[in-house]
Amino acid sequence: MSTIILGIESSCDETSASVVKDGEVLSNYIANQTIHEKYGGVVPELASRAHQQNIIPVVDAALKDAGIALEELSAIAFTRGPGLLGALLVGTSFAKGLSLALNIPMIDVNHLQAHILVHFIKQNTPDFKMPSFPMLCLLVSGGHTQLVLVENHLKMTIIGQTIDDAAGEAFDKCAKVSGLGYPGGPVVDRLAKLGNPKAFVFSKPRVADLNFSFSGLKTSYLYFLQDKMKENANFIDENKADLCASLQSTIVDILMDKTRKAIQQTNVKSFAIAGGVSANSGLRSATEALGKELGIEVHMPQLSYTTDNAAMVAIAGYYKFLNGEFADHSFAPMARMPF
Fold first, then answer.
1. Residues whose CB falls within 8 Å of the CB of residue 1, separated by 6 or more in sequence, listed in order
2. What CATH code would you report for 135-268?
3. Identical fold at 4-121+305-322 and 135-268?
4. pLDDT (tens digit per residue) in 273-318
């Protein structure tokens, strides 16, 4: 008998639903919230209201696209945390209601672990290969930067993480002070392809062990711009591509330096990247190069799986279902959820 999981993601500003059958994605719908662009960041109250409007049509679309009826579902997986509490509450409440109505179990999913598990979605392509265990995953997003040792689908340990700001936040904040808008990461990536990565030098932190730090880089970048603007008011406009290329190169170097050490220390069989920043072309190129340098198996997610989506929640739910790990209806969402 097939195992069919409905996944629901509502941790931030994307309302998403996905159907996974026996480890393969049948549908993955995402409703984005463009209203936050005018505020330069996600407004939690607006995000919660948008989730309430979007969740029913998004789930309906995911089920219809997958050709799956509600009665065929084996379980409902939902993002419990971490994330915006109000946003998480919408997805959690919907999952509870549908679980009770259909009399099927529900499965709570850690948002960060779900990002990692996109690498274990089955794909019917000739070149597809599941990552080998143990695997090291560099998880990089706007809110998190972590090195995670993955021993199996459900056993993961953080062995390094940022002590302050995340890599994605560094991209966005530096882009903001450069007048590139929000979200800034994709804009930096696009302009970096046109610039010289060695045009400018920004500070790299000295942090112990396998941890990261990006607050110093943000400060260094800001002060650099302020000094240059005093000399030339048009400095940013005249050097946007080189600024983006140099910033991106610095962030990627910081990430790869610690990742190289982690791979050498852990002797893992495979290496992967995940999270929103894993869509960055500079990071993807560096990841491929590091894999060749160290002779290790490398895995990068499809671009559609880098941002928040329900397919990652559904696949996490699938593996938890196989292991018999279910959620109680008393479970509440958690803005900060233990890894």
1. none
2. 3.30.420.40
3. yes
4. 999 999 999 999 999 999 999 999 999 999 999 999 999 999 999 9
